[in-house]
Amino acid sequence: DLQDARAAHPWIVTWDDHEVEDNYADGLPGKFGVAQGETPESFVAKRAAAYEAWWEHMPVAVGPPVDGALEIYRGVDWGDLVQLSVLDTRQHRSAPPEAGTANLPRQFGGGPRPPEAFAEDATMLGADQEAWLGERLRTGDARWTVLAQQSILAPVNRLPDQPGGGYSMDSWDGYVAARRRLIDAVVDAGRTDAVTIGGDLHTSVVADVHRDPDDPTSPVVLSELIGPSISARETLQDAPTAGARSNAHIRLYDIEHRGVLIVTFTADAARAEFVHVDATVPDAPPTAGPTYQIDAGTPGARAV
User: Fold this and answer.
1) CA quadruple 248, 196, 131, 86: dihedral positive or negative?
2) At what angle do helices 127-139 and 176-188 cross, to 10 degrees?
């Protein structure tokens, strides 16, 4: 089936963290994925081996790893319809805020954003990738600007009733200045029909990204779509799930269903269809989930 799928459709693949280790950042192991007895040196070696294995086994049109690094960010264009930028928010990011990482549990509700989350020099993309993306946005002329990235760009306060709220420092919430720079790049380039597509959360999400992400009264400048996991379940408890759903800019936050997200772009609209599959039943048929539409010229998704 996998060979047939690869023969039938073009694949544009990227990675996140579990190709190496949960929540790792650049050359730093993740706090909750650290292998027993792991050292900084052994992690770097493990990352290099994981990158090599990924490159050897995935249908990806990039050169081989060099000195333990693998540059996978790239652009793919469909004429004047879609400018797709495939970003790498894992390999080049700076270290996450220590305080935020330490308080991530409460069943992933997270904790308040510490001062390090607002550091101006923190980065998700690294300087070279930020510059590459800025130039790409400025010179593109496609109807739709699509950013494929690994996490969720919009803020998610999963514990709004708690002092300081509940945020994940592994997402863009741990890199507030870097998020602002990305939004600035989209807005300054005049990209009015911009969509970001992400993952990581094991959750289907539709959200608005505002000019000031922490101010829901500011204009919506990007639409966000997060695909569900194919088989892995989400383990949030009731309180952080309800808290996330209460965020005014979040249109959908579905932790219950597994499946895929299909996004269709035309000159007039982007249509996002969530397809559900029962991961506990072999050969289970797909069923239709919710559908959202983003109209060209009008940032923000609506249920249809």
Assistant:
1) positive
2) 20
Place of tokens 């992933």: 108
- E strands in the chain: 74-78, 82-86, 144-148, 194-198, 204-210, 220-226, 250-254, 259-265, 269-276, 287-295, 302-303
Specify whether 110 is located in the same domain as 64. Answer: no
CB-count exposure of residue 110 (10 Å: 0-12, 13-18, 19+): buried
0.90 cut: is pTM over it? Answer: yes
pLDDT at 150: 95
Residue 167 forms part of a structural domain: yes
Same domain, 96 and 165: yes
* H or E element at residue 42: helix 40-57
Distances, alpha carbon 53 to alpha carbons 14, 49, 59, 229, in Å: 13, 6, 12, 22
| Three-class secondary structure of residue 193 per DSSP | coil
List, run by run, the mean pLDDT of 10-residue segments along the chain (304 residues).
Answer: 89 94 86 70 92 95 94 97 98 81 58 93 98 97 98 96 91 97 98 97 97 97 97 86 97 97 98 97 96 98 98
Domain of 62, in residue numbers: 1-72
